[in-house]
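## Example record

The block below lists the input lines for one assembly entry, exactly as stored, with component labels intact.
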Amino acid sequence: MPESAAAAPDLSVPDLAAIREAARRIAPHVHRTPVLTSSSLDREAGARLFFKCENLQKIGAFKARGATSAVFSLPEAIARRGVVTHSSGNHGAAIAYAAGRRAIPAWVVMPNNAPRSKEAQVRRLGATVRLCEPNVAAREAACAEVQRESGASLVHPFDDPRVIAGQGTAALELLEEHPDLDVVIAPVGGGGLLSGTAIAASGVRPGIGIFGAEPANADDAFRSFASGRVEPVGPTLTIADGLRTSLSPRTLAAIRAHVVAIGLASEEAIVTAMRMIWERMKVIVEPSAAVPLACLLEGTVNVPGARVGVILSGGNVDLDALPWRT
Amino acid sequence: MPESAAAAPDLSVPDLAAIREAARRIAPHVHRTPVLTSSSLDREAGARLFFKCENLQKIGAFKARGATSAVFSLPEAIARRGVVTHSSGNHGAAIAYAAGRRAIPAWVVMPNNAPRSKEAQVRRLGATVRLCEPNVAAREAACAEVQRESGASLVHPFDDPRVIAGQGTAALELLEEHPDLDVVIAPVGGGGLLSGTAIAASGVRPGIGIFGAEPANADDAFRSFASGRVEPVGPTLTIADGLRTSLSPRTLAAIRAHVVAIGLASEEAIVTAMRMIWERMKVIVEPSAAVPLACLLEGTVNVPGARVGVILSGGNVDLDALPWRT
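Predicted C-alpha cells for the full assembly:
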C-alpha cells in the first residue's frame, strides 16, 4: 500500500466459529496439551490454578497453533509457493514446522544477532534462514525480497486473523476441559495469544474475566490498553524475551473489546514464578510463560479464591543459561 | 524376627485385582498423570514412545501412589497411631504426604547426611523427621524406637504388597490409555515400581514385553535377575540416586516371573537422556527417570519400531546442581 494512502487499519479478527474451525484444521498437526494443577502453587497464589501446558506443544510453544492454522488455510496453488515470516523466536520454528507438515517451502528472516540455537532449530525443521540486519527496515526488505523471488505468502507472527484463530484454540481446549473457570490469564507481547484467548473465552463463557500479563519493564500493552493507541514498546530490559513486541491496531482492538485488565510483573517476580513452576510442577517454562503467575503472586492480577486458567505459553530456554545461575 | 529363625522369606505380591483395588483407593489423593509423546524422541530411539509422567505426580514421583495405597489400607484404629518409614528420598515425602491426606501422624527416619532440602520437604508436608547415623543398623533401630513409642505402622519403601500395588497403578493407567503397547520399561532400584508395573502390565496385556532399566554402575538387579539371588548393590557411583538400592526376595521373585530383561545404562547416556527429555519434552525428570530412555538410546533394550511405554518415575532435582553444569 502506498505510504500516502490513509486507509483505516485492518482490524478484522476471527470470531468463535473461526476459532472452532481452526481447531479442526490444526488438530492433526498439534498436541492436545494437558492441563496441570498443583495444590502447592494454589496455596502460593491463593486461587485455584489450571495450567494449559503449551510449553508441551509441538516446537515447545503455542505458536505451533497459529502457524499451522495459517499454513493450512492457504489454497493449494498459493501454498505451493511457500510461506515466509520474520522471527527470532518461536514463531519462526512454528512456521518451519507447519510448512514441513504441509510439505511446502518456508523462509524465515532472522536478525543476524539471533541466538545460533534458534537458527539451527529452524534449519533442522527444514526452513531456509535469511539473515538480515537487526532492524525493521532490513527485516521488511528481506521478507519482500523472498516474496518477490518465490511468491511465498507472508505469515505475520501475530497481526493475522488466521494466526489469532489458531492461538485461540488453546483457551478453547482449556474451557472444554474446565468449563467453570472464573478467570483466564495469558501473557501479552504482540497480542496474538491474548486476543485469540479473549475471543475464544468470552465466546464460550460470557462473563469470564480475561486478563493479560506483561513484564513491567516492557509495559507497552498496558499503556496501549489505557490510551487506546498502539504505544511503542521502547527499550526493553526484560528477561521475558517473547514479550518484547508492540501490539498491532488489530490485536489492541480485540484486547480492548474483551480484556478486564493487564497486570504487570517485576523481573524478580518473573524469575521467582518461573523457578516455582519448574520446582513444583516439574515442567520447563520460558520466562515469558511465567509472567501470568508472577502477576498473581505480586497481586497485579488480584483474584483471590477464583478458578483461574493460566496459559503456559512456551518452554524454550537455554539450559546452559538459566536465570538463577550465579 | 530372631536371627536364628530360618523362616522362608515373604514373597507375597498383589495380583491384578489388588492393583485395581489400589487404583480405586488412591484415586482421590493422586494425579492421573498425562501420557506425553515426542516425535523427536521417537526418531532418536527408533521406536514410538509413550511417556507416563509420574514426574508430574504429587510430590514429584510415583512414590505417592505406593504410599497412599499403603496408608489408606490401614484399619482406622491402627492408622490413628501413625506410620513410620526410612527414606532419604521420594518415599519419605510420599509417606508424609499420604499421612497428611489421612490426617494421621508420620515419622520419617533419615540419615543425618541426607540433603537438607529433602528434610525440609518432609517437614513441610507435616511429618516428624528423625535423623540417624547413615547405616542400616542405626536406621532400623530408629524405626523400631518410633514404633515402640507410638505404635506406628512401618511402611517399607518397596518390600510391601500394598506399596507394590500402588506403584502398579501407573502402568494400569498407561495401558488404559494406550492398550496396544508392545513393551513397557521402568527403572529398577528396590524393585517396587518394576514389580508393580510387571504384574499390572502382564495382567491386562498378556504377552507384552516388560523390561527393567538400571545404571550399569549399580547393576545389582541385573546380577540378581541372572543369579536368582538378591545380590548386594555394592559401592554405587551413579548419578541415578533413586536406584542405589538392592532388591528384596519379594520384588526379585515378581521381576523374575514377568520381566524379559534388565537393560543397563552408562552414566553418560543417563545424563544425555535426561537432558534430551528436558529439552525436547519440556518436562523435568530426575536422573533415575531417564534410565529407561538411556537404555533405549544405547540399545541395551533393543526394540526397534515397537510401541514402548516408558515410566518417567520422578522429577525431583536440585536446580542449582544440574549434571550438565560445568
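The first helix of chain A runs from residue 16 to 26. The CA atoms of residues 272 and 294 of chain A lie 7 Å apart.
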